[in-house]
Structures are given as structure tokens and as C-alpha cells.
Amino acid sequence: MHLQIKKANIGYDKTLISNANASLNLGDVCLLIGNNGVGKTTLIKSILHQ
């Protein structure tokens, strides 16, 4: 299984993450670190279509 994100713009009222790129394979470990309000949860919800 493979997850690939290309040139994603993510946010609600304003864009929190712009031009994001990522590639993960089954078994990979990914860590999201950042200040409050920068879009970590928004990114995960977008990947999960929530």
C-alpha cells in the first residue's frame, strides 16, 4: 500500500498548508510536529476525508 500527496493545499477558511508533498509506504513511520494552529490535525482529517 502506498500513500502519495502531491501539491496539496489544505485548510478551512484559510489555507494552512500549501503545496504539500508526501510519500509513505506500508510500514513507514511519520511524525508531524508543529505549533498550535499550523494544520497538523487538518492534514490528517484531509487524508482520511473527514
Task: Outline the structure in words.
By secondary structure, the chain is α+β, with helices and mostly antiparallel strands. The protein has one domain (2-47). 16% of the residues lie in helices and 42% in strands. The chain is globular, with a radius of gyration of 11 Å.
Spatial gap, N to C terminus? 20 Å
Determine the structural class based on helices, strands and strand pairing: alpha+beta
Estimated share of beta-strand residues: 35-45%
Largest sheet: 2 strands, antiparallel
Please indicate the count of domains: 1
Average pLDDT number: 90
Spatial shape: globular
Please tally the helical runs, counting DSSP H or I stretches of 4 or more residues: 1
SSE topology:
Blueprint: E1 2-11, E2 15-25, H1 40-47
Antiparallel strand pairs: 1-2
What is this structure, in a nutshell?
By secondary structure, the chain is of the alpha+beta class. It has one helix at residues 40-47; strands at residues 2-11, 15-25. The relative contact order is 0.28.
Observed structural traits:
ATP hydrolysis activity, nucleotide-binding, 2 strands, 16% helix, ABC_transporter-like_ATP-bd, alpha+beta, two-stranded antiparallel ribbon, 42% strand, ATP-binding, 50 residues
